[in-house]
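Second attempt. The first submission of Ferritin-like domain-containing protein had a stray character pasted in from the spreadsheet, which I only caught after the job came back as garbage. Lesson logged: always re-copy from the clean sequence file. Corrected sequence (147 aa) follows.
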Amino acid sequence: MIHTVEDNADAIFTWRYDKGERPRLDKLYEKAKTSQWNGQTDLDWSIDVDPYKTLAPADPLEVQYFAENPQSPLHKLNEDEWADLGVESMNWSLSQFMHGEQGALLCTAKIVETVPWIDAKYYAATQVMDEARHVEVFAQYLDQKLD
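This time the job returned cleanly.
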């Protein structure tokens, strides 16, 4: 599924390619180039994940008070169903983080497009890569570990 959001921001090209006009940005850019991590090789994807072990034992959703109302659909849930609800809620929350990271990916890409200085474009591009890794890792974790 694709959702389009209209964006009327200008793309700013620069004809000045001199590095170092903004030394702090240049320093961050150089540091970012040597400090990249790879979600495929730097994380141990062979580790099994049991989402039920991560739940808080008493009330994973902090909605136990709804179960006290006999009219609530939560009123009839047994312990296993509560755990299932907690896991599904956690999966939903993590998927929301993943979508948020995609939003950050789009925003950082827009920074590259709209800043006027080459130093800022270089550094912002490292942020784009970082956000791409976040989206990739969240997607893989949700698909492989929590599916």
